[in-house]
Amino acid sequence: MTEPVQRQQIGYDLAGNPMYVAPIQHGPASVAHQATQPLQPIKAHPWGAYIAGGCLGVLALTVLAVAIAFVVFGFAILAAVLALAVVALTICVLVLRSMFRDYQKGH
Fold it and tell me: Keywords of this protein's UniProt record, alphabetized (predicted)?
């Protein structure tokens, strides 16, 4: 039978618990002594392309938002412009009619 491993006590911690020597490893070497693997190369990312794509995406969204705004508000603006044109043409016709009557009377 195997006997339990006896560890040497080296003192007590602040809570009064016994402290022991760290067990000796007979197996593979510790992580610090293992051969390190070579570092993987740094993967280069095309950050300029990412930024350019983001800028183009923002520009496309802006154009789309303006187009939607023109469609949504376009009819209201068209109605306002049409009303302004009708008022201007009405004033123009009234002025011309008044001038034509004055011309007919001979003034």
Answer: Membrane, Transmembrane, Transmembrane helix
C-alpha 85/C-alpha 79 separation (Å) is: 10
Whether the pTM exceeds 0.85: the reply is no
The three-state DSSP-derived secondary structure of 44-79 is CCCHHHHHHHHHHHHHHHHHHHHHHHHHHHHHHHHH
Distance CA 86, CA 99 (A): 20
* Three-class DSSP category at 10: strand
Residue range 5-16, pLDDT digits in tens: 678 888 899 999
Q: Mapping DSSP to helix (H, G, I), strand (E, B) and coil, where does residue 12 land?
A: strand
Nearest to 86 by CA among 78, 97, 76: 78
